[in-house]
């Protein structure tokens, strides 16, 4: 008899959306995203960017593994809800520690991250019966996360450059887990076909995190503006920053977000592989949105000034990361046209990095024009294609 906690994707006849428990769990990651953008805007150096990237990748991995859990286990059951709440508390500890994770709060950050990974993954093993085809892959996931956790803990015990080096190793191993099938001695390795999923639920969860990240761009713009004197130029900076957020939303959700659910539904034999791929491909998309929130803060604070190169980099890197991530997304998952986005990424890099002689608002406005141009082109092109197909 199957576990009452388990979902059974093959038996799902109607779309399955995110539960209220999952949406409540996501609230902690609103804080995490805000902490990450604040940490980056306070330290626009190579070291600061590297540290923020490490913390972002850890936060994303904690969230995406939890999304896989709620794809396999019903979050409407009490036991799964309890694990989500415990994971939420662990994530809150990790999010609180983000600004000082590389200083005196390393232990708190690792306790939050490692605690979530081990508790969640251990629960999944206990919640499946040995006869369940998913049991062996979940055992491998738990074993992999357990030994990598030791490396995270070791990083918290050292200081300075040694800590970031150790944590980068741990992060690489964490991200290598699915690619290696979470191989373990005597346990073997899993294959993507072992990781079945519910298409409608998985695609909606990814979309909700993108919305969460976009929310940070709105919050960053609003908070920055509310603390400063408002004049015509600053109001224009707020308008342009809002426009950039709208353009990101447009570029992600106009047809292509729906395409994920459609591809997962149609390619049932490849769902595990596609889910794995999407787990990685959303990293640059989310990172690009968060970096763009930093760019919005800088532009609103200094709309009429010429920014230094380190301050101009977020204006280039944020939109470029988003576009390049969506290029891989479109090419490998949707098999849709992608060249226009790559061209747009190059154009944005050129106009912003060569724009050190222009004002911040002028450079950010040019970024908006490029993003809207791509969105309009794709909207018209897709409509034309759809009309031709009919």
UniProtKB/TrEMBL annotation:
Transmembrane segments: 53-73, 79-99, 106-126, 138-158, 165-185, 205-223, 235-253, 277-300, 312-331, 343-376
Claim: NADP is one of the keywords in the record: no
Coiled coil: none
Assigned keywords, A-Z: Membrane, Transmembrane, Transmembrane helix
Origin superkingdom: Bacteria
UniProt xrefs under InterPro entries: Low_temperature_requirement_A
Pfam family, one: LtrA
Protein name, as recorded: Low temperature requirement protein A
């Amino acid at each position: 008899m199957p576990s009452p906690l388990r979902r059974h994707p093959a038996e799902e006849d109607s779309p399955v959306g995110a539960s209220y428990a999952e949406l409540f769990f996501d609230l902690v990651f609103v804080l995490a995203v805000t902490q990450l953008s604040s940490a980056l805007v306070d330290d626009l150096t190579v070291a600061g960017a590297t540290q923020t990237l490490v913390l972002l990748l850890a936060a994303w991995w904690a969230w995406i593994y939890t999304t896989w859990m709620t794809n396999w286990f019903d979050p409407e059951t009490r036991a799964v809800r309890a694990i989500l709440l415990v994971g939420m508390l662990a994530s809150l500890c990790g999010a609180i520690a983000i600004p000082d994770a590389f200083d005196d709060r390393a232990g708190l950050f690792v306790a939050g991250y490692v605690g979530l990974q081990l508790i969640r993954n251990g629960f999944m093993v206990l919640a499946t019966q040995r006869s369940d085809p998913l049991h062996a892959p979940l055992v491998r996931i738990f074993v992999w996360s357990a030994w990598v956790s030791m490396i995270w803990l070791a990083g918290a015990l050292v200081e300075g450059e040694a800590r970031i080096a150790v944590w980068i190793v741990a992060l690489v191993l964490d991200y290598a887990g699915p690619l290696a099938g979470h191989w373990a001695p005597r346990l073997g390795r899993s294959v993507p076909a072992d990781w079945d999923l519910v298409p409608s639920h998985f695609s909606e969860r990814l979309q909700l995190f993108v919305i969460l990240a976009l929310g940070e761009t709105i919050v960053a713009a609003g908070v920055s503006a509310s603390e400063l004197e408002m004049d015509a130029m600053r109001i224009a900076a707020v308008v342009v920053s809002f426009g950039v957020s709208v353009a990101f939303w447009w570029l992600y959700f106009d047809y292509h977000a729906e395409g994920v659910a459609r591809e997962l539904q149609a390619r049932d034999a490849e769902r595990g592989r596609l889910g794995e791929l999407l787990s990685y491909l959303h990293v640059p998309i989310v990172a690009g949105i968060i970096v763009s929130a930093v760019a919005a803060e800088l532009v609103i604070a200094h709309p009429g000034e010429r920014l230094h190169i380190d301050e101009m980099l977020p204006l280039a890197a944020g939109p470029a990361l988003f576009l390049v991530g969506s290029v891989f997304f479109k090419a490998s998952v949707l098999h849709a046209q992608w060249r226009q986005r790559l061209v747009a990424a190059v154009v944005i890099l050129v106009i912003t990095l060569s724009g050190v002689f222009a004002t911040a608002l002028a450079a950010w406005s040019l970024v908006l024009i490029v993003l809207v141009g791509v969105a309009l082109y794709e909207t018209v092109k897709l409509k034309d294609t759809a009309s031709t197909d009919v």
